[in-house]
Amino acid sequence: MKNLKKIKGDASLRKFYRKKNKDYSSIIVFCKKDKFKNLLVYEAINKELNKNKILAPCLINEKYNQNYIEIQDFGNQTVFKILNKKRNNNKFIYFKKVISTLNQIQSIKTKSIKNFKNKKYKIPKYKKDILIEEANLFCEWYVKKNLSKNTKGEFSRKFKKIIKKLTSNLKLKNDVFVHRDFHVSNLMLVENQIGVIDSQDALIGNKAYDLASLIDDVRFRTSISLKEKIYNYYIKNHLKLEKRKFKNDFEILSILRNLKIIGIFTRLAMRDRKKKYLKLIPHAWDLIAIRINKNKIFSELKNLINENFEKKLNEN
Question: Which domains, from first to last, does the chain contain?
Fold first, then answer.
């Protein structure tokens, strides 16, 4: 295909190209493996977001049989890039806009959507089994790489038991639309509006999950004071929220997510030779440390990690 320029991709199996047209540019999303989720579901979720007045890339053309779709080009201005500028002292202003977008996402009521093949897709529930399976990626990849044969079996057994207990301690229902990878690298500034990308993994889940993804983002460092400011701003916008239950779930989901991320980033390096993600693992540990000291329900997990890894999760 002419006029295509490969652009930076993400940790998924997809490849992205910018197509220059006479009057506009578009994005080609190419995916051969697992293209149902990465093309069909992605476009269907985007359509649902737009339907609910949330900016997401619209479909321009589909060549599903040739493993690609053509979608709207949002440009290069991710919120991550804007916040990362050294002179940007107004980070909270952007986070307020992002929280407003998150509120819109969480107000979506639809549980079933149609894809461009005119077939219904029921958005799955973020069941506890999925959370456990995701957290266990930490054992499957990071533990496998970093602990001896004699130690890893016993560690994994104890770890899985603790994770199961933590997921049983979640208080809120799985009843809101969850983007599932809601962080500033997946949010674009498009003519002063927040645009949402990378939404193919969306599920119906816990209200605290996307906020935990945003605040405890492994890719973007924020001060503890800014984290608290964003959290409190969200809470103020949800007056009927059961605050204790929400805080409990926020902390559990943040830790589970960052354990999952450590596992995924290790897998990307070992299996897919994408070693650039390894440099983010120390920050994932820091984020776990921030949350693990705030609640006694994490004491077993903290002790297990401190006994087996050089990285100590002591309060700083």
Answer: 76-308 (3.90.1200.10)
